[in-house]
Amino acid sequence: MTVVNIKDRVKNNKLNLSGLNLTEIPTKEIAPLKVSHLDLSNNKITSTDNVFSSLPSLVKLDLSGNQIKSVAGDIGSLQKLAYLSLANNKIKDLPKGLSKLKQLKHLNLSNNPLKPELVEAIGPSQNNAQCQSAAANAIQYLKGDSKKQDDKQNKKKDKKNSKASPNGVQNDKSKNKTKSKKKPAGFVSKVFGFFGMLISYTLLFAVLIGLSLYALSYYDKKTYGNVKAKLLPVWASATSNLDPKVASKVNYYLLQAGNSFDQAVHTSIDASIKSYKWVKANPTVQQYSKNVQDTWKSFWDSVFKKVKST
Questions:
Q1: What are 285-298's pLDDT values in tens digits?
Q2: What single string gives the DSSP state of each residue in 21-81?
Q3: H or E stretch including 86?
Q4: Listed residue (34, 91, 83) closest to 62, CA to CA
Q5: What are phi and psi of 215, to 5 degrees?
Q6: d(CA 288, CA 182)
Q7: Using CA atoms, how far apart are residues 85 and 106, in angstroms rounded to an integer?
């Protein structure tokens, strides 16, 4: 059959090539036409290899009444396919690719020598209602079948990797080998981790002490002077072994940092006191702040009630 003959048979985006004694599907001639309906029934077609991927626009495909023994796996590329008839062929099984046909609503597999498992899973497909259920059942069956095959392959791999023995001694050895592949943390990394943690906690402790001292210097200068008098000899003995130049630099930087920190603390405290006095002197601001507090409190009360109820 020539290309011209095929073009002449296209009507309303539908191509009818039924009953023409075709032995193969003329894919090269059909593909450029981009038809949505293709009727290839009642021919002598034996193979569907290298066909479906070239016809992605198909919505309806009729291959009934041929001599097809197996359906090519690339049928999954027909993402728009809603109707598929494979009746009166020699098909025994279906490819996994058919499970990818999300739009498939009609599947006719009547009068095929299907394997018993497939017949039981899909059911009959004589009338329209049965063909609709057959489509859904086939997709579900093929998805489940692929999972089973994957499980079987994984079990085979596990059997090959593990050496079976009646006492299970060799299996334990293989498990120990796999566990030994995980490299434990090295001694050096543990030491560095310990010292890093020690330094961080020491710095945190020093900051807390500094905050306590500066708070004490603001509220009780006499007690602060007594504490300072006790701490200075301890600091002097700690820095006595250092080089004088290094010790002087350390003391200088600590003094600068202390002065800056002291100034910041005093400034923040003064600002807090001034803001408190300003709020106290303005009833409108007091009422506003009270409203804000009440709203915030009611919000958190509702949140905790919801948490308790759940």
A1: 777 777 877 888 78
A2: --SS--HHHHGGG--SEEE--SS-----TTTGGG-TT-SEEE--SS------GGGGG-TT-
A3: none
A4: 83
A5: -65, -40
A6: 61
A7: 8
Q: Which two tokens stand for residue 70?
A: 């197996």
Angle at 253 between CA 248 and CA 258, to 5 degrees: 125
Residue position matching structure tokens 């948490």: 307
Summarised one tens digit per residue, pLDDT across range 94-116 is 999 999 999 999 999 999 999 99
Tokens representing residue 258 in the block: 């202390």
DSSP notation for 9-28: TEETTEEE-TTS--SS--HH
Q: Is 275 exposed, middle or buried (0-12, 13-18, 19+ CB in 10 A)?
A: exposed
Q: What is the pTM of this model?
A: 0.48
Q: Residue 180 has which token pair?
A: 């030994």
